């Protein structure tokens, strides 16, 4: 939105929107790298020092990305909630009266994604998928190989069922946003489900615990990387400009 009421041409930020997104991506990826570095420090320290129960052990557990309630889990949840808020912003802008793309067909996919990202953020915080492991245990015989798959079975079923809504939503997204969101979600989902299966295989084969730690580290790093890519994809649909000392938002289809 351009404000020319004072008779002046709008003054926009010197940095282009692409450069701003690139800088944002670098910052977010750097934070992810820092969190994974702390994870490595935690794992190495625990293996060398072997701390007992106490504050020091709690700190190491907080830094261990393989733990459910950890710094990595909090960061991923925060990223997902930011994705949800950004998608909700895109929904409002796409359906607003001041945009050319004023139609339900353009707006509703962003609302769907906002809900999906909020639910994924909630799962990171309260570990809903762990309840899925109990559901699997309740219906699958403990001696069956399927019992080892835990939460991946209900998660896979939910993912397949949700495709009926997600596929039309993705098809309605702008091409650039759709590409990045799909790459990001694909990376995160492949890491969460795929590396969980790898861990099950390593455990069944009696592989050294160190190899499982590596697999878990790869899983967490890929999940965070995927969510950052998703966020950058959503932000391509939100045009941010600094005009005449006013911050304006617009939908970029």
Describe the structure.
The protein is mainly alpha-helical and 253 residues long. The chain has 8 helices and 2 strands, in the order ααααααααββ. The chain has a two-stranded antiparallel ribbon. The two termini are 15 Å apart. The model is unreliable at 1-15 and 98-102 (pLDDT under 50).
Tally the beta strands.
Answer: 2
SSE sequence, one letter per element? HHHHHHHHEE
Arithmetic mean of pLDDT: 81
List segments where confidence is low: pLDDT < 50 over at least 5 consecutive residues: 1-15, 98-102
**Spatial ordering of strands, largest sheet:** 1-2
Briefly summarize what is shown.
This protein has helices at residues 17-49, 55-63, 71-94, 104-126, 128-139, 152-172, 175-204, 209-235, and strands spanning 238-243, 246-251.
Structure keywords:
single chain, 253 residues, mainly alpha, two-stranded antiparallel sheet, globular
Topology readout:
Elements: H1 17-49, H2 55-63, H3 71-94, H4 104-126, H5 128-139, H6 152-172, H7 175-204, H8 209-235, E1 238-243, E2 246-251
Antiparallel strand pairs: 1-2
Helix pairs in contact: 1-2, 1-8, 3-4, 3-8, 4-6, 5-6, 6-7, 7-8
């Amino acid at each position: 939105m351009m404000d020319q009421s004072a008779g002046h041409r709008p003054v926009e930020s010197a940095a282009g929107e692409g450069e701003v997104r690139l800088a944002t991506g670098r910052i977010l990826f750097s934070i992810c790298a820092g969190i994974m570095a702390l994870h490595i420090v935690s794992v190495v320290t625990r293996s060398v020092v072997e701390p007992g129960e106490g504050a020091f052990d709690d700190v190491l557990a907080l830094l261990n990305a393989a733990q459910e309630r950890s710094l990595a889990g909090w960061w991923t949840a925060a990223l997902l909630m930011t994705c949800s808020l950004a998608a909700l912003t895109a929904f409002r802008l796409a359906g607003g009266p001041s945009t050319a793309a004023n139609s339900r067909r353009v707006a509703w996919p962003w609302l769907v994604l906002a809900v999906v990202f909020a639910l994924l953020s909630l799962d990171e915080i309260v570990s809903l998928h762990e309840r899925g492991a109990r559901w699997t245990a309740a219906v699958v015989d403990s001696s069956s190989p399927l019992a080892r798959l835990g939460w991946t079975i209900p998660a896979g079923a939910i993912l397949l069922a949700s495709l009926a809504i997600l596929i039309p939503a993705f098809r309605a997204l702008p091409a650039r946003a759709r590409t990045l969101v799909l790459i990001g979600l694909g990376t995160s989902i492949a890491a969460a489900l795929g590396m969980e299966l790898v861990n099950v295989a390593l455990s069944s084969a009696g592989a050294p615990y160190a190899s499982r730690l590596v697999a878990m580290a790869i899983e967490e790093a890929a999940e965070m990387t995927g969510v950052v890519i998703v966020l950058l994809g959503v932000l391509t649909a939100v045009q941010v400009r600094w005009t005449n000392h006013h911050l304006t938002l617009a939908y970029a289809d």
